[in-house]
Amino acid sequence: MGNLEGQFFWEQAVEEPVELWVTPGAGDVEVRAGPRGKVRIEGRFSVRAVPQARAERLAQLLRESPPVEVRGREIRVGDLEKYAAKLAPSILGAFFEGVWIDYQIEVPPHTEARVESGSGDIGIQGISGPVIAHTGSGEVVLERIGGEADIKTGSGDAEVKGIEGELGITTGSGDVYVEEVGDDVKIKTGSGDVRVRGVAGDLQVTAGSGDLALRGISGDVEVRTGSGDIHLDSDLPSGKTWRLRTGSGDVELVLPRGTEFRLAAESEFGEVESDFPPSPQAASSVEVKAGSGDISIKAR
């Protein structure tokens, strides 16, 4: 079996805004903002194939004609199908099964990006967006995105900081870290802890299992977890509603002293304590339910 490593470079002037599509079968992808009017791509690859000549030929094709296609403002990266006609049939099956490519991509700031990887980490920073980042297994990190963003990972952490638009995150298993989002946030995770800080819009979290730590939410809050503790420390703006549910786990809410809200708190097998007097006419409301676990509502 041939096993070869190498790299390729690609650079071209482009019109803005740029639409970037990256579809590596396997490999890490890093996208960052660079100079205006230009896209630069570096790929580091590993090729495994039988026989050795097949691996050498595919490595040569990657170096001489990188997997990049330009369609006006659209840049497509990672499609290996164009090499199929130039290679003999694979003894092991599809020719691209033995190819791993890590990409470092530099694009103009005014770029929207869609990255879909079978396995590998994804990092995107400093572009206008919107951004779609999906990986079967791997970590996703987004920073300083000017529009909305959507993240999906089968297994792996998701870390987000500085998103101006709406944010959606779906993970099968993995921790979620979110900081400073200018719009609504929706998070769904099968298992893993969730940490959120600084959301200008509404927050919705659905978790199978894992602890939730939430801070500084300006909109409505709706949280459900099958098992895990919930900690929410935030102001409660007038007219907003918090709804929190946990099957098993403690719930702790921390609000400014003097906050007025309607409260409905119930724990089937736990205690309920509140530092706040009843305010049945308040515009805001807090609803908390726990199957087994204590509920604590504290003033700061």
Radius of gyration: 24 Å
Unreliable segments of 5+ consecutive residues: none
Shape: elongated
Describe the biggest sheet? 14 strands, mixed
User: How many runs of DSSP E, i.e. beta strands?
Assistant: 27
Give the class from helix and strand content and strand pairing.
mainly beta
Could you tell me how far the N terminus lies from the C terminus, measured between alpha carbons in angstroms?
A: 65 Å
Strand percentage:
over 45%
Task: Give the strand order, joined by hyphens, for the main sheet.
Answer: 1-4-7-3-9-11-13-15-17-19-21-23-27-25
**Helical run tally:** 1
Describe, in plain words, how this protein is organized in 3D.
With 300 residues, the chain is mainly beta. Among the domains are: 111 residues, no CATH class; 88 residues, no CATH class. The strands form two sheets. It has a 14-stranded mixed beta sheet. A 13-stranded mixed beta sheet has the order 5-6-2-8-10-12-14-16-18-20-22-26-24, with no helix packed on it. Strand 5 and strand 6 form a beta hairpin. The model has no long low-confidence stretch (mean pLDDT 93).
